[in-house]
Give the backbone structure.
Amino acid sequence: MNTLPLALRDSTTMLRRNLLHARRYPSLTLNLLLTPIMLLLLFVYVFGDVMSAGIGGGDRSAYIAYLVPGLLLMTIGSTTIGTAVSVSNDMTEGIIARFRTMAIHRGSVLIGHVIGSVLQSVASVVLVGAVAVAIGFRSTDATPLEWLAAFGLLVLFAVALTWIAVGMGLISPNAEAASNNAMPLILLPLLSSAFVPVDSMPGWFQPVAEYQPFTPAIETLRGLLLGTEIGHNGWLAVAWCVGLAVLGYYWSAAKFNRDPK
């Protein structure tokens, strides 16, 4: 067979395999999904009034609007940890050694993981978004074009983080190590503008929050959904996404194609 049809066929097969695994073992995805949902409920109902006053809002609804874009991106980071664990399991349980002996397109294994993870990330974002709407989040100022741009940013961000998570899974000796290696994908949003504005942080800490991928992506998504100023954050978010996706792809491909010792 030609290379392209073979790659498409085998990638589709691997995607189906990963989706079946996710359906049969949903506990990991659900556990990771609970983190952003619990943070959403905690910050809205426990700290909502205080935080809203701190950002100059009139009531809790102002803080809900501020909080949700960051938690949507945090949801993507949480979901991709499951990808690192899944890739590590494949590498350590012997199935990859079996795949190497079969007449399948070599890259289809990783492509199946990436596409499956992106689909799970989108589904998780929709679920967290539905919870946010149920407790009062509204995006009345966004136009259809801005909604489309917001969705495109979420998908692009999911692709970028997924390739990084795949690389983390490939270098991990077991599933526990993969989960630990991927923890920055959850911790970085906590150190960004997801919960409070960057300019309200201590001066020494502001560079940590500003010069990382989550903050420009959050500010861009916030601007698209709420009609606030985006400024230079738009191209910074896209640059971070493209850079991380390319880095993660080449890192993952190099690790995966290396012959086992």
Notes: The radius of gyration is 19 Å. The chain has a mean pLDDT of 86.
